[in-house]
Write a structure and sequence with these properties.
Blueprint: H1 2-8, H2 31-48, E1 53-57, E2 63-68, H3 76-90, H4 94-102, E3 120-125, E4 128-136, H5 140-155
Antiparallel strand pairs: 1-2, 1-4, 3-4
Length: 158
């Protein structure tokens, strides 16, 4: 098993030609738009019968809008915010960290303020990061489905 995990680890000494995840920062998402992102997430969660926490942050990772659906897990309040913050600050989906940890890339667990759990998605408009959305309260795959629907308010043209 250990040799299989090691075989999946990418060459960390490889030097990419371009900076990965180099999305330029844009102006922060407006409060009105952040609420529309959350409304879309709530609609998707309701269609599926799931109760989740949904957070939207600006490019710095600071909270812009939040909702906890009735009966959503209390422990997931901070997790939704953490997923959104990580997606914004690192300019990538939190699933990237989850996939990396599952492949045995141990250094990812040492990065400041990372959460290696899917359900955090950057919000990109006109090629610029304007914020991120994070969802929590279900399984990682449930969180990701709702988060992706919520992010579609901004990321339609991506």
């Amino acid at each position: 098993m250990a040799s299989q995990a090691q075989a999946q680890v990418p060459d960390l000494n490889a030097i990419p030609e371009k900076m990965p995840f180099n999305i330029p920062y844009g102006p922060p998402i407006s409060a009105e738009r952040a609420h529309r992102v959350i409304e879309e997430g709530i609609a998707e969660a309701r269609r599926r019968g799931w109760e989740l926490n949904i957070a939207v942050v600006d490019p710095h990772g600071d909270l812009k809008a939040f909702t906890r659906m009735d009966d959503a897990a209390l422990a997931s309040i901070s997790i939704a915010q953490h997923k959104a913050r990580t997606a914004a600050r690192y300019r990538r989906e939190t699933r990237v960290f989850e996939d990396g940890v599952m492949k045995g890339i141990a250094y990812l667990t040492t990065l400041d303020d990372v959460i290696a759990s899917r359900g955090g998605i950057p919000l990109v408009e006109d090629g610029k990061l304007i914020g991120a959305v994070g969802c929590s309260g279900g399984t990682g795959s449930q969180d990701e489905v709702v988060c992706r629907a919520a992010a579609s308010v901004v990321n339609r043209e991506r």
